[in-house]
């Protein structure tokens, strides 16, 4: 089928409106927009929303999307299918006033046959009504048509938009067998015989294998054509060698092509056992993973290929080789990026099954929709070599019950029925799964009697709900008590049946169970499906020493909208995980929402054994001594800066991270000591602050392995403007990301000062989003003026469909104006 973009020229309005209201001019404010479009990111944040911090105080709402669409007369007799890659939350789709379908899952695609609804040779009206109800998500969900929309058009005999499968049946360096399954649909009454030609083209552009066969497609039927292709000396796909093949399938009648499709795929094999762990193409592979949410920071949930690719590339550059989509199926654009960059993927079905975590969340629909959701996820993923794991769910409260175990078996079996080539897991949270017997578990872990435990847990009325509650949670989730809970025989009794239902036992924050599980179940393989960032040194040691432990997925690799306050350092009495206005971001992650790496990222890279150059993190000197709440997801409030005016002579806490034997720190050329770092990857120096040059050197086997420098910046006098590209295709969807940083006269980055930066875009482009990485601030990402945070802001510019130039002007008081010219081709 021919794929046609429908992303341009939509009309958008808040609320539900009719076409008659639109025609009569009674529909209120109508905007002309292009997709993808996140309606939520444009809403005014308010402390009054029932969503509160869960969505970063962005409210829900009802929205209407309308498009006038000219349908050619030539399409009569054709099959026309609409594809919506994602609509949040629930929606109704109408064509020419008639209801076509309804959909309730915001993360699965919609394919709707509209052939019988169209008026040929004239204008048609497509309308989508969307309801983003409040308290439906634990994170920022976005709203509306936030992913692309397409039309698929096929003649009487065609290859459907879904159903083509390319499978590696066997592969090594000498040869591979690739099986190609092609459905061929005949919507007519008369049988047709077609020629099917399959060509597999390698990464170097040369033909790797080909086959052609005749197929008779009987009237009103779909025939499945299956062929095995031999590929000699295949270029295998892995996280280290992301080689991609193109599979082109063409069907012809009397040597006249009538339909074709191109599938990008990779040749790779997977094996799994407790002796060797996960093997990709026969090579043991550890998962250096991170969980990610689906939003793209300052542009919200809008799914642009350029944004997904950039985020994936940045995580790959930071040392990750695996992503877990949390907690929903991953976008097609991110899957494409993972294929290209060599990022292994765990795709997740849902955050809830039959028990709600929010009053209006997907548990209200899951019991009746789960089979379709599994089918949708598998169909979307099947030809992507990056996908190696399916997660049946995340932190399911039912995990500690027999019924929960039954649900897990059913979902696992359905995934295996649809795709036997990949493995399943589930993110089990011990505290949540063991909640019904947590008193018994705590008594067993602490040695206390129930009466003693109850007395200890009586809250101080003046402290109820405050920092003490967060600290109590931290004690239960981290440290000896957490380890005792994780390995509790009572917890094993509760979750054992559930964990046994999957190929891999996936544990959230149950690190102590990783080795214990091998003693209890020597055939089992284990994965840290969600782990604390600061636990990486201890955790990765377990991963390296135990073949049955596949790796870990930290929470999280990239900061995100919503779940606000999870990791924000509140120095003003604010409590984490509470409705603390104006918190907007989670405030955690190795990488902030602008794409800048934090010191924890360099610690993790060192632990992973990637490179030997050192990195530096300095605790914020202006926050020293101030009481701050902390959650287990927080590391240190530090940054790579040696610019702290006003704090001369005071002591700075300086971390040096390195994958090396020793490190040495110098201040203005004077050594502050050489320290052993081998095996711990981080050492801390207490340094009297004096402006100048702070330099770290790493040593391996006695020789210098690398060095890094932080230079004190003088007064910020210029705006440093950097775009990740200056040329964009005139497609209406391509993006460039422009960083603006404050610099002194010598070009040193000044993170200390702040400036209100104004952005102006003229010509063949538009401002898609503008903002800083500040996790707790007011303002809109659609504003043209933003204050820098830690010396930076970023703008995202979207190309128009018309070729030409775009002029971006950046200005701030007391700074010279900067101009950037973008070529839109």
Automatic annotation (TrEMBL):
Belongs to the glycosyl hydrolase 2 family. InterPro entries: Beta-gal/glucu_dom_sf, Beta-mannosidase-like_N2, DUF4982, Galactose-bd-like_sf, GH, GH2_Domain-Containing, Glyco_hydro2_dom5, Glyco_hydro_2. Keywords: Glycosidase, Hydrolase. Residues 649-704 form the DUF4982 domain. GO terms for molecular function: beta-galactosidase activity. Residues 276-427 form the Glycoside hydrolase family 2 catalytic domain. The lineage of its organism: Bacteria, Bacillati, Bacillota, Clostridia, Lachnospirales. It comes from [Ruminococcus] torques. Its EC number is 3.2.1.23. This is Beta-galactosidase.
């Amino acid at each position: 089928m021919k794929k046609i973009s429908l992303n341009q020229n939509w009309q958008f309005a808040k609320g539900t409106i009719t076409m008659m209201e639109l025609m009569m001019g009674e529909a209120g404010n109508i905007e002309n927009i292009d997709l993808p479009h996140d309606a939520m990111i444009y809403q005014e944040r308010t402390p009054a929303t029932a969503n509160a911090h869960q969505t970063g105080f962005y409210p829900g709402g009802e929205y209407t999307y309308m498009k006038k669409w000219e349908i050619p007369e030539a399409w009569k007799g054709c099959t026309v299918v609409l594809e919506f890659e994602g609509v949040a939350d629930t929606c109704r789709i109408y064509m020419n006033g008639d209801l076509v379908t309804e959909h309730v899952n915001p993360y699965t695609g919609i394919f709707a046959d509209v052939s019988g609804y169209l008026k040929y040779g004239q204008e048609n009206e497509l309308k989508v009504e969307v309801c983003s109800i409040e308290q439906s998500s634990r994170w920022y969900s976005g709203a509306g048509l936030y992913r692309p929309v397409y039309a698929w058009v096929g003649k009487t005999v065609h290859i459907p938009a879904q159903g083509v499968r390319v499978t590696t049946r066997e592969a090594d360096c000498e040869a591979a067998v690739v099986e190609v399954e092609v459905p061929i649909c005949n919507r007519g009454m008369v049988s047709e015989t077609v020629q099917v030609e399959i060509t597999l083209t390698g990464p170097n552009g040369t033909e790797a294998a080909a086959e052609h066969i005749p197929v008779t497609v009987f009237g009103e039927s779909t025939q499945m054509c299956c062929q095995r292709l031999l590929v000699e000396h295949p270029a295998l796909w892995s996280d280290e060698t992301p080689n991609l093949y193109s599979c082109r399938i063409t069907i012809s009648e009397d040597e006249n092509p009538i339909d074709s499709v191109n599938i990008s795929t990779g040749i790779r094999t997977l094996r799994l056992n407790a002796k060797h762990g996960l093997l990709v193409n026969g090579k043991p592979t550890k998962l250096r993973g991170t969980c990610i949410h689906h939003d793209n920071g300052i542009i919200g949930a809008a799914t642009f290929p350029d944004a997904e690719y950039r985020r994936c590339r940045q995580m790959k550059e930071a040392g990750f080789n695996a992503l877990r989509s949390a907690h929903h199926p991953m976008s097609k654009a991110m899957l494409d990026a993972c294929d290209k960059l060599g990022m292994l993927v765990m795709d997740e079905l849902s955050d809830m099954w039959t028990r709600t975590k929010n009053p209006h969340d997907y548990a209200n629909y899951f019991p009746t929709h789960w089979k379709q959701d599994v089918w949708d996820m598998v169909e979307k993923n099947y030809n992507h070599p990056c996908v190696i794991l399916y997660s049946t769910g995340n932190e399911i409260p039912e995990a500690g019950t027999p019924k929960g175990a039954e649900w897990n078996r059913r979902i696992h079996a359905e995934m295996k029925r649809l795709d036997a080539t990949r493995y399943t897991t589930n993110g089990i949270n011990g505290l949540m799964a063991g909640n019904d017997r947590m008193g018994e578990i705590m008594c067993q872990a602490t040695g206390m009697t129930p009466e003693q435990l109850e007395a200890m847990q009586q809250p101080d009325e003046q402290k109820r709900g405050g920092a003490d509650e967060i600290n109590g949670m931290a004690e239960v989730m981290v440290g000896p008590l957490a380890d005792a809970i994780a390995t509790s025989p009572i917890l094993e009794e509760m979750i054992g049946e559930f964990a046994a239902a999957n190929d891999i036992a996936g544990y959230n924050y149950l690190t102590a169970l990783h080795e214990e599980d091998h003693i209890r179940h020597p055939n089992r393989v284990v994965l840290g499906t969600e782990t604390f960032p600061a636990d990486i040194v201890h955790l990765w040691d377990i991963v390296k020493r135990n073949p049955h432990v596949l790796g870990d997925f930290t929470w999280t690799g990239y900061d995100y909208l919503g779940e606000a306050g999870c990791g924000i350092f509140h120095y003003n009495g604010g409590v984490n995980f509470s409705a603390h206005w104006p918190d907007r971001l989670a405030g955690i992650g190795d990488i902030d929402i602008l794409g800048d790496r934090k010191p924890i990222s360099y610690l993790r890279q060192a632990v992973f054994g990637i490179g030997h150059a050192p990195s530096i993190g300095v605790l914020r000197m202006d926050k020293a001594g101030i009481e701050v709440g902390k959650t287990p997801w927080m590391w240190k409030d530090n940054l790579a800066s040696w610019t702290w005016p006003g704090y001369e002579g005071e002591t700075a806490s300086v971390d040096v991270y390195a994958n090396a034997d020793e490190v040495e720190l110098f201040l203005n050329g004077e050594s502050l000591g050489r320290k052993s770092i081998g095996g711990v990857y981080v050492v801390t120096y207490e340094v009297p602050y004096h402006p100048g040059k702070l330099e770290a050197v790493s040593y391996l086997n006695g020789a210098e392995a690398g060095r890094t420098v932080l230079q004190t910046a003088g007064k910020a006098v210029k705006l440093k403007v950097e775009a990740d590209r200056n040329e964009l295709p005139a497609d209406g969807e391509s993006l460039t990301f422009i960083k603006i940083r404050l610099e002194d006269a010598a070009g040193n980055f000044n993170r200390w000062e702040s400036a209100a930066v104004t952005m102006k875009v003229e010509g063949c482009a538009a401002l898609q989003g503008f903002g800083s990485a500040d996790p707790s601030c007011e303002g809109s990402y659609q504003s043209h003026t933003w204050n820098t945070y830690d010396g930076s802001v970023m703008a995202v510019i979207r190309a128009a469909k018309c070729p030409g130039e775009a002029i971006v002007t950046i200005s701030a008081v007391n700074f010279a104006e900067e101009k950037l010219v973008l070529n839109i081709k």
